Amino acid sequence: MKNNIQKLKKYLQPTAFIDYESPEVQKFVKNCISEDCGIIDNMLRLYYKVRDTIRYDTYDIISEPLSFKASRTIKRGYGFCIPKAILLAAVARAIGVPSRLGYADVTNHIASEKIRKRMKTNLFVFHSYTDLFLNGKWVKATPAFNKTLCEILEVEPLDFNGKKDSLFQQFDKKGNKYMEYIRDRGIFDDHPYEEMMNTFEIFYPHIFEEYKRTWNGYIKMIC
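Structure (tokenized):
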């Protein structure tokens, strides 16, 4: 029993990205949970708040490290799958639920022409979800797509009950193949920023070069 508690400790610690002790995350949590609810019900409240009040933005795929902090995602009010998964991990730890970050490569079979043109592929590497330790076991939760976006895409929004894994939808409402998991990249106690960026450089070199030019220009401007 003690060994299990020790193993879970690292999944309750604040980190550079999972900065749940920040005022922004603490306020976000306080405004969502209820003292009348148990830990599971409050976790579900937080899942839906992250899913639906933080707008999903697929074009914000590469950015500086600061943009991945949970507190920054709250300030911005939007983000793609990774910042939203990090935020969910942060609010979970804030209420005492061990959390970790999972990553996988997925194929989006109904990606828009605009995003295909931008990415030059329909393969999205380092898609992220949150792994939560509830009722004595790890369950996966994916807060990426907000309900409004799901209505536009004609897919069912991902619900989460704290008991079963909630991962990207395989099919849309018309029965067309939607998301397909291609490769598991593992589970982490904090966001592996450098590993992610190295992978992005391999799969999206055109966007990565654009990012480096913008970021280097920004550094020169403030120095």
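Strands lie at 55-56, 78-79, 99-108, 123-134, 137-141, 179-188. The longest strand covers residues 123-134.
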